[in-house]
UniProtKB/TrEMBL annotation:
It comes from Actinoallomurus acaciae. It is found in: Cell membrane. It holds the Pfam family HisKA. It catalyses: ATP + protein L-histidine = ADP + protein N-phospho-L-histidine. Its EC number is 2.7.13.3. InterPro entries: 2C_sensor_his_kinase, DraK_HK_N, HAMP_dom, HATPase_C_sf, HATPase_dom, His_kinase_dom, HisK_dim/P_dom, HisK_dim/P_sf. Its cofactor is Mn(2+); Mg(2+). It is an enzyme of class 2 (transferase). This is Signal transduction histidine-protein kinase/phosphatase MprB. It is a multi-pass membrane protein.
Length: 426
């Protein structure tokens, strides 16, 4: 797109030069030649008047006197009696000259000739000046086109990246504006879409959790009743055999339901997998560092390196990004991202040096539509939902200054949770 803008602007500039420059150059040339001819004509009239005056005063007239008054001209004066007086050097044969004649009623005739080479030199200098202005104009047009192309293409590239992130499930509003009304409108629409997508994702995950709980409870009760039937049956052999088969079917049904609901909890970005925490954190620091630098703030990293947690990459990225954005808007000072390992979790702590969470919001900071200022009230709510969907949790471990902690599953804990084997007669 940038190249097309540059080429179109250059084409417009060239067309404007051709439409305006060529007529201007032609008109300027004609004006220079017309001015030269009029000057020679005036000089001829001046010579006639001067010769006539000297004749009336009975003064002598010589060619040297006339040549001194009109240097660079070849002048031929024809008196009334037919005598001729010449002044200056005659032009060479074949030279391009400008010649004008003048006469009076007393029979004095004057012919003034001028070399046209000087006029052509003036015309060439004028053409060079016009050409320099044309080149300058085209250069200015190309420079403005480059600035305008950059102003238009960079926001579009940024919006394309935002749309791609929305398509991959990273539904975090960016709240960036670019000073172009049409582009800003697209950015606002994408932000509203991000909020709606985030609401839909959170609602689907909440539904999955509720459905899992509501289905697991009656299945557990049914399993208990079957076990009681097995224990209290009058015909142990037959009832026990049927009861064991029914219990196995219930177990398998519960396992299938859990697998289906586990899939429903995760969006198309992929299930939680073992990933390196350092890579996700470093990527977010790299993305947010320029924004914090503009606010004269910095992001620091500390703690244990090389930790691996079971989480979806997009989910962890969005959680860390939400906490950094929250610190940028509501916090102050340096932001520290500290990673550590506990016996049961991988912990990522994000804290700053600001005033912290107000006491009246401390218990409701993760509730929907709760915000300190200039916020939608969805960021921390969605971040906690993402952490819960991946089997972790997000907590406020210190209110003033604010420090949030992301508790993630370790690889060993996730493997133990998946090692459930269901067996029994079909």
């Amino acid at each position: 797109m940038r190249r097309r803008l540059l080429l179109s602007t250059l084409a417009v500039a060239v067309v404007a030069v051709l439409l305006l420059g060529i007529p201007l150059a032609y008109s300027t040339e004609r004006l220079i030649y017309d001015e030269a001819q009029q000057q020679v004509e005036r000089e001829a009239a001046t010579v006639v008047a001067g010769v006539n005056l000297r004749e009336e005063l009975r003064q002598s007239i010589t060619g040297d006197q006339i040549a001194k008054e009109f240097p660079g001209r070849y002048i031929v004066v024809t008196m009334a009696d037919g005598t001729q007086i010449t002044a200056g050097n005659a032009p060479a044969k074949g030279d391009h000259v400008i010649t004008k004649m003048a006469a009076n009623d007393r029979g004095i005739h004057v012919q003034v000739s001028r070399d046209a080479g000087d006029v052509e030199a003036d015309a060439v200098r004028t053409f060079l000046l016009i050409g320099s202005l044309v080149v300058l104009g085209v250069g200015v047009a190309v420079g403005l086109a480059m600035v305008q192309a950059r102003k238009l293409t960079l926001p579009l590239i940024d919006l394309a990246e935002t749309a791609d992130r929305l398509g991959s499930g990273n539904a975090r509003p960016r709240r960036r504006r670019y000073g172009v009304p049409e582009v800003d409108r697209v950015a606002e629409v994408l932000d509203r879409s991000a909020v709606r997508i985030a609401d839909l994702l959170a609602a689907s995950r909440e539904f999955a959790s509720d459905a899992s709980h509501q289905l697991r409870t009656p299945l557990t009760a049914l399993s208990m009743r079957l076990e009681e039937m097995i224990e209290a049956a009058e015909y142990p052999d037959v009832v026990r055999e049927e009861g064991v088969a029914a219990a196995a079917q219930v177990e398998r049904l519960a396992a299938v339901v859990e697998q289906l609901l586990a899939r429903a909890k995760h969006d198309p970005t992929g299930d939680a997998i073992p990933i390196g925490v350092d890579e996700i954190v470093a990527q977010q620091v790299k993305e947010w560092e320029p924004v914090f630098r503009r606010e004269n703030r910095r992001i620091g990293m500390s703690g244990v390196r090389g930790l691996t947690a079971v989480v979806s990459p997009g989910g962890l990225s969005q959680i860390v990004a939400t906490l950094l954005d929250n610190s940028l808007v509501h916090g102050d000072g340096e932001v520290t991202i500290h990673t550590k390992e506990t016996p049961i979790s991988i912990v990522v702590e994000v804290g700053d040096e600001g005033a912290g969470v107000p006491p009246e919001l401390e218990r409701r900071v993760f509730d929907r539509n709760v915000s300190g200022r200039q916020g939608t009230g969805l960021g921390l709510y969605l971040a906690r939902s993402l952490a819960t969907a991946d089997g972790g949790r997000l907590e406020l471990i210190r209110a003033r200054p604010a420090t949030f902690a992301i508790f993630l599953r370790k690889r060993e804990e996730a493997l133990l949770a998946r090692e459930r084997v269901v067996s029994g007669p079909a």
